[in-house]
Amino acid sequence: MSRYFLSFDIEDWFHAHNMKPMVDRSDWETAEQRVSVNTRRILDLLDNHEIKATFFILGWVADRYPDLVEEIDSRGHEVASHGYNHKLLYEQSQSDVRSDIERSLDVLEPLVSQSIRGYRAPSFSITDWAVDILSDLGFKYDSSSFPFDTHDRYGRLTHPEDSTETIATLNENMTEVQLPLLDLPGISLPWAGGGYFRVMPYPVYQRGLKRIARSRDVVFYLHPWDLDPDQPQFDELPLSYRLRHYTNLDRTADRLNRLLEQFDWQPIGSAV
Hints:
The chain is an alpha/beta fold. The protein contains 9 helices and 11 strands. The strands form 3 sheets. Strands 1, 2, 3, 10 and 11 form a 5-stranded parallel β-sheet that branches. Helix 4 (94-108) packs across helix 5 (128-136). The longest helix has 15 residues, at 35-49. The radius of gyration is 17 Å and the shape is globular. The protein starts with a strand and ends in a 6-residue tail after the last strand.
């Protein structure tokens, strides 16, 4: 029987790369901070359904909201790393990526009562050499491989590129937990959450998840800002960015509630 893994990437609305043309890195401190209240909305929804999940937390957020990290841990969820500065891995040097991930661990580890075992790269920008860094830093799994060739930000792993398994061995120390595609005649579509979840009609999305689960485990993800229709919005953004970031924000909480009700979710770390 296939399993359903639930995860959240804990970052604020201005960390998303869609917002980069409007909110510079130097403006993060003064941008409207909404991650704390939106994450607690997610925590309350999970409590209502008695479901635990994996939270990939950005170090920048943990530095400013340590009480939020402690609350995620104390409410029984898995805490994992989303790096510190939310930079795409393949745009940095290997030494800069190592420093970024180490910095996230330095912030997260003193706040929680569990080991940090998992990592997810910003915008799924994983690379082969980053796996060696993660293994060297003691991580047990990565969940960044999203093998959808036409996305402009996703990274790529040589292995397990050809694997259709959700959970695949990378080396003796590291496991990859891949995000799923929905295979249809002649085409494969990304079907793991985020904007894909917001854009598709819920009954269609639900059927797609069940179709994937016929042959493999499912991984689902969302961000706190995916549930936030009141976040700042910019008409100056390119149309593609506005569609990715703003579509159906006001419907996501209800859709997530239905998703939690209809599937048997568990954190990723429970399987690694």
